[in-house]
Please model this.
Amino acid sequence: GEDVEQSLFLSVREGDSSVINCTYTDSSSTYLYWYKQEPGAGLQLLTYIFSNMDMKQDQRLTVLLNKKDKHLSLRIADTQTGDSAIYFCAERKSSASKIIFGSGTRLSIRP
Amino acid sequence: GAGVSQSPSNKVTEKGKDVELRCDPISGHTALYWYRQSLGQGLEFLIYFQGNSAPDKSGLPSDRFSAERTGGSVSTLTIQRTQQEDSAVYLCASSSAYQETQYFGPGTRLLVL
Model:
């Protein structure tokens, strides 16, 4: 079956690292995504990882994939107030299939 | 245009009325998706068009919902006999064939009174 789960909220102090976790159930998922949604704005693709990769780093963002446990995480280093948003994890079986989204994790930054 | 556009940006309707929501994908993109995002919720998949293939309608919540894609470009999502629980933001996305990235439109915020 298809299911993507995330915790609903995360609060971190400015300057600390944020780690947002996601689990998925479909072991045949090929692509795994992280999207960001700022208040009143549309969805923005942050990064994605292929299932044959363990890690992907892009500036302050690090994606870790544990395929055995079907666990995906997004680490944001040196979290800033501009990182406040809802972060969605998503999975996709192949490039020709639909993307299934999690319910999103609301990241809030405290001073 | 440069990105995915949707219209209207906001729609207020009365319960029982029909509504049509429009999506203009990025030119040349063969894949088009509709999602629904209820307040404080994640994205619920509705329907997926890929080229000339039969659409994946597995996410449509009831037979009051339908979608068309004319000429492989513009898509219209129709909700008949709207109910209050249909109130949500309806998001459209497009991607080119076999591309990893979806590009989302700004959404249509639907309120059913």
